[in-house]
Prior knowledge:
Blueprint: H1 26-53, H2 57-60, E1 61-62, E2 65-66, H3 68-89, H4 95-110
Antiparallel strand pairs: 1-2
Amino acid sequence: MEMFDEVSKVTVQPDDKVETKKLISDEQTIREMNAKELEDALAEFMREWRTWSEMRPECATDYGRPGIIWWRNLQCLALAESRFKEAFIQGDRSPRSAQQFQRFKLKMIAGKRYRTDA
């Protein structure tokens, strides 16, 4: 029972530095996640758009009809556009946000810079 009878004292010196991690708010974390998702969705959409628009004519047709490769690339483009739209509008289903998304999408396809109307 002697080992429980010992008393030890610990002191902390005031000049000891404790490194703390910078705290960020939940809103800032969500904004950063949304920005990253939008960036990834835009990159995926542009990659699929280039793939679909640069498709060779012989791959696109089977006996004068759209071939399976054309349909698969079109499906990939549609899925990429859907992800891009969701990341862009973030749940705002108003006609104004849909118009703004359409303008932004067309400018990205055309290779123009997007400027905000401020």
